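ESCALATION

Customer reports they have been waiting on this structure for their group meeting. Please prioritize. Original submission:
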Amino acid sequence: MSYLDEPPMDAPRGGARAERWAALAVLGVVALLLAALAVPHAFQALAERKARDTVPLLPPPLKPSPAGEFRGITLKLHSYYSGIPFEKYVEEIARTGANTICFSLAAFQENCASSSLFIEYRKVPSVERIAKLIKLAHDRKLRVVILPMVLLENPGTTEWRGAIKPPQLQDWWDDYESYILFYARLAQQCRAEVFLVGSEMVSMESETKRWRQLIGKVRKAYKGLLCYSANWDHYENIEWWGDLDLVGMTTYHDLVGDKKPSLEVLMESWRPIREKVLAWQKRIRRPILFTEVGWPSQQGCAKEPWNYLGSKIPDLATQARCFQAFFETWKNRKAVGGVLIWEWRNHPPSKSDPVPEECSYVPRGKPAMDVIQEYFKSPGALARLEATTAPASRPATRPVGE
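Update from on-call: job pushed to the front of the queue and completed.
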């Protein structure tokens, strides 16, 4: 017998040895049969786990949200002119019962085919004045959101910032990065609570690597909460939400075709939108900040709220109902981290304005303001937010010239 046939050192000896070896052989066969039967179940479990993994959960937010929902109003800082009383408007917003103010700033490029982006210093207050406005807001117990956006100086008929396609992509990104980092450093210096890395850049959102690199640089310069404002119809395909603390989206959904819809009709229109957004939010696991909530007080505003040039016929009642339907739909939802109303006035109205104030988004002095203030006064969904797991927005699928 060769050493290969030799039983192990601890194997039983004598006649009992054969019997025990036979018993072990039977047990081995049984074990093999059981293993064979288990193989299909193992493959089935693996397939089920693989199916679950096709919709992966993002990691928890990088930092917790601050206490309470953001309930604010946006003030556009789109002029250097010292005669515009921005300070007065901050005081007015503080008296509405809001706990947050959003300062909108802009950089410009010529059109969608431009590779150059720049800050037009005639169309933005000085750094010193912006800093003083942030301090004033903090003194009035308002939290501050900084919203930098891109506007087009000479857009084509159907051009808007969501359709930008610069031929020299790297040149554009270099300019955009400088723009965003400039205001991120200012936001850090002034201790703004939230900073947005962009707004409605639909055509550029697939540049995942570049966005992640930019967000990483912003985090080194700014220590507050980071967000991005997605278009209302283009938020699901962004692959870098996990790099941010809040997911932002506008609310210019097409609701109903009626010129004067009832509250019940409006709320029914919101129902499928809400269920879709909430189902998506469970996977993203970040609080939602509705970055632009607004309807122009004009006929047809419920159907195309993004089209502020849609009508010159005032309709203050429908504007108010649209706000009421929105608040009734979204209030006390744990997934909602805040609401920013678009927009407060930023200059005295003039005859040259493309939209008269009685047809504009501005809710001040209109029935909509009563609805907004009632919401500002209402209890929040959470005492503390937990880590849940240009003007009007243009639809990504149907742009209109700006």
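Sent to customer with the following note: Residues 1-18, 29-55, 382-402 have pLDDT under 50 and may be disordered.
Escalation resolved.
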